[in-house]
Amino acid sequence: MKKIFALVLLLCATAYADVAQAQPPRRRAEQQARQEQQLNAPQGSAYREFPTAQTMPADAAWRRDLYRTIDLSKEQNAVLYYPTTPQDGRENLFTYLFKLLLRKQIKAYDYKLDGNEDFSAKNEVTAKQLMDRYHIFYESKGDKVRVNDADIPSDEVKAYFVKESTYYDQHTATFRSQVTALCPVLKRGDADFGGELAQYPMFWVKMSDIAPYLGKLMLMGSSLNNAAMMSADDFFTMKCYKGDIYKAVNLQDRLLSNYCTDDSAVIREQKRIEKQLVDVQEHVYGRDSAYYAKLRADSLAQAAADSLAAAGKASRTSRRTSTSRRTSSTRRTSTTKVSSGSSTKQSKPAKTKSRQPKASTGKSSGGGYSVRRQRH
Q1: Whether 156 contacts 134, CB under 8 Å
Q2: Residue 284: which H helix or E strand, with range?
Q3: Complete DSSP assignment for 160-199
Q4: Which residues, 6+ apart, have CB-to-CB distance to 219 below 8 Å?
Q5: Collapsing DSSP states into helix, strand and coil, what is residue 245?
Q6: Which residue ranges make up each domain of the chain?
Q7: Three-state DSSP class for 285?
Q8: pLDDT given at position 135
Q9: Widest CA span of the chain, in angstroms?
């Protein structure tokens, strides 16, 4: 009986194997693709099926596209640069993106001379082409390419170009900023010998393509609290980076350096563009900056006038008080003098004038003589 049961099981297994092998190649390929997708899917608390940033509507009522440079030497952006080599399960942004590119999980597009992104199929570039172009060592065996972590030039990628869109969503009546494209910038040169580093923009990637994967890349959010972690997707969505504008989309497709004469002019132009973004938001929400600036100036002028008036009134009051004090003091002084003079006059005896006869000199001119009366 046991032999019969074992024989039946063997026949069933053989029939199942035949059915599995009899499947069309297309169906087997689809099943294999689904299995690989399940294996490569992120697991754990970092799993996300969609990016955290809200999709920019195609019918946005207002939009301004800017290109910024994220300098990784600045402390606010350093979280994207360190560690330069993977350690303790942590890696920087470029290492993470380059490995995704090697596994063909994301697409990269060539950086054109005009600096504009082109996400067409003809502009797509492979990881092998990039490694040949920038002299990155790799090992190839057939279609497979292997690169060691030490050979990935993550320490030489010291900046990123990002395309940022600031738009007004009339459906939710809100202003938002969203990064739509990212480009790592390779910097090489003889900086140790006084030379300047030459920068090589490598490739563009769509933010919508890499956002689901950026949710898995955890970054250290603070140097004081090493337990504070945030995802790279949150870093860009919350605009935690600091980038300087180098281009605003315009009809002539010019960079700021094309029409600004020097660095000071570039800085002034950057501030002017930043202020335009703030002014548009304030105007839409009814907080017009020009109106409030005039109101503030009028308030300051009125406050200054009130201060001057108060100071003048205080000065006049002080002068009147000092004059009154001087007058009272003068009056008291004169009264004291008059009183002392009266008492002095009353104490002094009256002067009497007495006339004394003048004695004759006994002299006369010529033959003069004197007559003396004789007493009888």
Answers
A1: no
A2: helix 263-284
A3: EEEEEEEEEETTTTEEEEEEEEEEEEEEES-GGGTPPPEE
A4: 79, 80, 229, 230, 231, 232, 235
A5: strand
A6: 44-277, 288-323
A7: coil
A8: 95
A9: 217
pLDDT on residue 27: 76
- Token readout for 357 is 């006869």
Residue 295 carries which DSSP code? H
DSSP state of 151: G
Taking phi over 0 as left and psi of -120 to 50 as alpha, with beta for the rest, 145 belongs to beta
Six token digits for residue 6: 């074992």
CA separation for the pair 218, 231 (Å, rounded): 4
3-state secondary structure 222-259: CCCCCCCEEEHHHHHHCCCCCEEEEEECCCCCCEHHHH
- In the chain, the N- to C-terminal Cα span, in Å, equals 217
- Distance between CA atoms of 130 and 136, rounded to whole angstroms? 8
Question: Cβ-count burial of 177 within 10 angstroms (0-12 exposed, 13-18 middle, 19+ buried)?
Answer: middle
DSSP category for residue 89: T
Helices (H) and strands (E) in the chain, counts: 9, 12
Q: Give the residues of the chain that fall short of pLDDT 50.
A: 19-20, 41-49, 338, 343-354, 357-369, 376
